[in-house]
Design goal:
The complex is a heterodimer of chains A (about 290) and B (about 375). Chain A is α+β, with helices and mostly antiparallel strands and about 290 residues long. Helices cover about 50% and strands about 20% of the residues of chain A. Chain B contains eleven helices and ten strands. In chain B, helix 9 crosses helix 11. The chains are: A alpha+beta (about 290), B alpha+beta (about 375).
């Protein structure tokens, strides 16, 4: 054997090369992330590493795949969760308000054969799903008032959309795992502007009511203090109103004429009949 | 067979060409001699050689024996003779093909070594696939695998916490809140890889997925709160809700990603309405200062009333002991003080109407300020 190789090394090398090429082209490495569809003369024959739910990683059939060289081709199909990102959609709510919505869907190719027959490649599946996602979204969200559009998760709208899209996607051998709204914005221009105006006026209203509330509280605090002071005075002075009258009069004179008359002296014209001048006129003749 | 020999001839040319850069120098093949530097004849200057006289002539195509044959013969001799380099039976020394073989062997060996030992850093895990099929995960340290085409290792950093920033602090990222207000928000998501296998094999585009899920979860969380909550104390709540929600969604994708935290860096009203929001806080300040003033007034009034009442009570106590005397005393003392300071006119005769010079009754300011004059006037009048 070795002698034969050595006698005709070129021939041996050629043969070895041929064998190597044949082996290499009859064996493919199927990674975990891909499903391999073996196509014989354009007719799909068998599938390696096909997706099946709840299979542990490493037990899915990835590894070496064999095929007849030159007769069979491998079509690679992604096994992972892929996404289709929708273009912005304008959704009209039942109360005639508009909302711009960005959504995405996650999907997985669960039937590579069907996918291969109906769309040929993964990218074309995404292209096919995108408009359907848009219309499902518009249809489903268009049944709702604007307020519900803001959190459609709570009303199960997203699940409806997922189901609707999934029904179509099954035709492509695709399972829709999830549909979500990424963004929901008011359209630029008058809707956005009127929302701003509403926010502004709401704040102004709040500001005014805060001021009014503050003024009210301040007034109440003052009134309470006044009342308390009045009560204090009344309990104290009410013990002898006559004396209070006199006492307060004395204080008033003091304040008016002495404390208040410092910068402007007062002119007083007294009649001798005045109480203060009583002794003055009586002249000590008691 | 003819075919094969033709191929052989072509291959021969190929091999001889690949012998070295000197190749068939100058178009005229030099007669066969011992190549290399062991030549007995002096080097012949090749007229067309770009290397001038420097390059020694090489045995290019002079001999009909192909280089491959030589190589095989040589190696046979070498293996037989225990590696005696120059003692080949053919006596030709053309080492480059030999080196090529050994070099290739060495490279293969090196390749096998390099692809067998894997150094996994402490923060990494090595995911081993055997012909594409997941086989095991290597922990930190040195991991052994079969050489490269059979087993491959993909290293995944699992400890490093990665950061995705969403919503720019500079620009505006507007979102709608549950009360149909608009908020400008910027936040970041910290995540790391929990399951390297899932991370590698289950998602087509992990980073983009995380980002999309973050946006979706944040929008959902904001649409369940009011603007005031989102701006104010509701932040921590929203962060927790977004994190939890993201984790739940990513788990349904079997992403192998752990969300470590969500941080809201900015949650403000949009610039277009910011002034109105500032007006609200100004109103709050104003209201507070109103209330403060009222409180100060109340405090003052309370003290004042208590003070006055107490003063009255004290005086009244004394008054009760001797009402008449106290009353008169107070009257006189007050009058005394009052009349000390005033200009007094006493009109005695009945029927006399005094002429009151009202203009004069208001002396210029300088006169008032003169305490001397006032004092004497008052003193004189008092006595």
């Amino acid at each position: 054997m070795i002698a034969a190789i050595l006698r005709r090394p070129i021939l041996a090398a050629m043969l070895a090369l041929l064998v190597l090429v044949t082996i290499l082209s009859s064996v493919s490495i199927v990674p975990e992330t891909r499903q391999a569809l073996i196509v014989r003369f354009g007719k799909p024959d068998r599938i390696y590493n096909r997706y099946r739910p709840s299979q542990p990683i490493g037990g899915t059939g990835a590894g070496l795949a064999f095929r007849v060289p030159f007769l069979e081709n491998v079509v690679w199909i992604d096994k992972r969760v892929r996404d289709v990102d929708m273009e912005r959609q304008q959704v009209l709510s039942t109360d005639q308000l508009r909302l711009e919505v960005d959504a995405f869907a996650r999907y997985r190719i669960v039937d590579p054969l069907r996918m291969y027959i109906s769309a040929r490649s993964e990218d074309r599946v995404g292209e096919a799903l995108r408009p359907i996602l848009g219309s499902e979204l518009r249809n489903e969200l268009g049944k709702r008032p604007f307020a519900d559009l803001l959190s459609p998760e709570r009303q199960g709208a997203m699940e409806n959309i997922r189901r609707g899209l999934d029904r179509v996607a099954r035709q492509y051998g695709v399972q829709i795992i999830d549909v979500r709204i990424k963004r929901a914005d008011l359209p630029d221009g008058s809707p956005l502007q009127s929302a701003y105006d509403r926010m502004k006026t709401a704040r102004e209203q709040e500001a005014r009511s805060i001021r009014a509330e503050g003024a009210k509280q301040a007034q109440i605090i003052r009134a309470e203090a006044d009342a308390e002071a009045a009560k204090t005075y009344a309990t104290s002075f009410g013990k002898d109103p006559a004396f209070y009258d006199f006492y307060r009069a004395m204080q008033a004179y003091q304040r008016t004429f002495v404390d208040g008359g410092k910068d402007r002296p007062t002119n007083v014209i007294l009649s001798p009949q005045n109480e203060f001048l009583r002794e003055f006129t009586r002249g000590g003749g008691r | 067979m003819n075919d094969v020999s033709g191929w052989a001839a072509r291959a021969r040319g190929l091999f001889s060409d690949s012998k070295g850069p000197w190749g068939p120098s100058g178009g005229t093949p030099p007669p066969g001699d011992t190549g290399g530097n062991g030549g007995e004849e002096p080097p012949r200057p090749g007229p067309a050689s770009p290397w001038g006289t420097q390059g020694p002539a090489r045995p290019a195509g002079g001999n009909p024996v192909s280089s491959l044959d030589v190589l095989i013969a040589r190696s046979r001799a070498r293996f037989g003779g225990g590696g005696g380099g120059g003692s080949g039976g053919l006596g030709r020394r053309s080492p480059s093909p030999q080196f090529l073989v050994w070099g290739v062997a060495l490279l293969v060996l090196l390749w096998i070594l390099l692809s067998t030992f894997h150094r996994i850093a402490p923060e990494e895990r090595g995911v081993v696939t055997q012909f594409g099929r997941y086989s095991r995960t290597l922990g930190p340290g040195v991991g052994l695998t079969l050489p490269s085409p059979i087993e491959r290792v993909q290293k995944v950093d699992v400890e490093n916490i990665r950061n995705i920033d969403l919503g720019s602090v500079g620009g505006e990222t507007l979102m709608l809140t549950g009360d149909q207000n608009i908020i400008d928000i910027a936040y970041s998501v910290r995540w790391n890889v929990r399951d390297p296998e899932l991370y590698l094999f289950e998602l087509q585009n992990p980073e983009q997925t995380i980002q999309q899920v973050a946006e979706s979860a944040m929008r959902a969380a904001l649409s369940a709160t009011t603007l005031n909550e989102a701006i104010g104390e509701g932040r921590g709540d929203i962060e927790a809700r977004v994190q939890e929600n993201m984790q739940r969604i990513l788990d349904t994708y079997r992403s192998g990603v752990a969300i470590q935290g969500v941080a809201i860096k900015q949650a403000d009203p949009p610039a277009a309405v910011n002034d109105a929001f500032k007006a609200v806080s100004a109103a709050q300040q104003a209201a507070q200062s109103d209330i403060n003033q009222a409180r100060a007034y109340a405090l003052q009034l309370r003290q004042l009333s208590q003070g006055e009442a107490t003063a009255f009570d004290k005086v009244y106590e004394q008054y009760r002991l001797a009402p008449e005397v106290t009353r008169r005393r107070m009257y006189y003392e007050t009058m005394e003080r009052v009349l000390q300071n005033v200009d007094k006119t006493i009109v005695e005769a009945p029927g006399v109407t005094p002429y009151l010079p009202l203009q004069q009754s208001r002396p210029p300011a300088a006169a008032i300020q003169d305490p001397q004059a006032q004092g004497t006037a008052a003193g004189g009048a008092g006595r």
